[in-house]
Amino acid sequence: MYLNSFMPLRKSVDYVNMSNSSTTKVFLLSNLSTFQLRQITYGLSKRNADSLSMLTQIKAKPFSGRTVLFIVVMTMMSVELRFLYLFQLFLAKWRGFIDVF
Prior knowledge:
This protein is mainly alpha-helical. It folds into two domains: about 10-65, no CATH class; about 65-100. The chain is about 60% helix and about 0% strand. It has five helices and no strands. The chain has helices at about 5, 20-30, 35-45, 50-55, 65-95. The model is unreliable at about 1-25, about 45-50 and about 55-60 (pLDDT under 50).
């Protein structure tokens, strides 16, 4: 599985890394305070050149074990849902409902 390619499993995260997958971005941003989220929103709405660098410089709160577990479960579910979708396409093709392959 590609879990290690987008998020290291450790107790804390030093910076918000915006090169990660979209699921991880949401959880990393949820660890920020309201004031920091307002700063990010203001920077993006004003279209500052520094708004993207501001996203990578704001310190995030440390992860709890429950948050890391939730990210792992959500990642596994998304991978399983992709395989389930492909399996449903295969069954539909095999039964003659659609002609995609």
